[in-house]
Design brief:
The protein is of the alpha/beta class. 41% of the residues lie in helices and 15% in strands. InterPro entries: 2'-dNMP_N-hydrolase, Nucleoside_deoxyribTrfase.
Length: 198
């Protein structure tokens, strides 16, 4: 595989401390399997000097979209974001955007708990309540029917993230790699994506 098979590297990583160093290491892991990883920062030259505000944010969004358009696929971190059960919402949008283009996707996470477990943990920690079985017409509903104290379903049984997220990754032929070492989880996902793009 040539070294110019571009793949988009996405996740909440852009918000983490040491983000540049993280992406440098991810790019090296991509090169080891014949891919060229592009991080969101790669399309944002000069933007960092602009003042914060709506126009700058829109420039970042446009730059990220342009990078995605150049790529054959994407590797997405689906770790829970801001101590919640769900991943970074911007990355979720990017998964949908690239799926709509018919591109190949891969995911990875260090948190292999199933999504309803993550919701239960978040609710307990943040709100001190527990999930419960939803009851409809005086009878419990079975599959996908656990709800939180606000009556919102904790769905996506069998998946580590929201069903649309992991579902789109799986529909593209990929899966979500799980490993307690962040870089090893990424490496597994990158290797699988390289195989499918090869």
């Amino acid at each position: 595989m040539s070294g110019n098979t571009y793949v988009y590297l996405a996740g909440d990583l852009v918000f983490r401390p040491g983000a540049i160093a993280i992406f440098d290491r991810l790019r090296a892991l991509c090169r080891a399997v014949g891919l060229e990883g592009l991080a969101p920062f790669d399309g944002q030259a000069g933007i960092e000097t602009l003042p914060p505000g709506l126009e700058t944010t829109l420039k970042i969004v446009a730059a990220d979209r342009a990078l995605m358009d150049r790529c054959a696929g994407g590797i997405f971190c689906v770790d829970p974001f801001r101590r919640a059960a769900d991943m970074d919402p911007g990355t979720a949008v990017e998964i949908g955007y690239m799926m709509a283009q018919g591109k190949k996707l891969a995911g990875y996470t260090v948190d292999g708990r199933l999504y309803p477990e993550k919701v239960a943990s978040y609710r307990l920690t943040a709100w001190g309540d527990a999930l419960r079985q939803r009851v409809t017409h005086d009878a419990p509903v079975e599959s996908g029917a656990i709800e939180d104290a606000d009556g919102i379903l904790a769905h996506s049984d069998g998946m580590v993230q929201n069903g649309m997220i992991e579902g789109f990754i799986r529909m593209s032929g990929g899966f979500v790699a799980v490993h307690d070492d962040f870089y090893e989880a990424f490496r597994i996902a990158a290797e699988d994506l390289a195989r499918r793009l090869g």
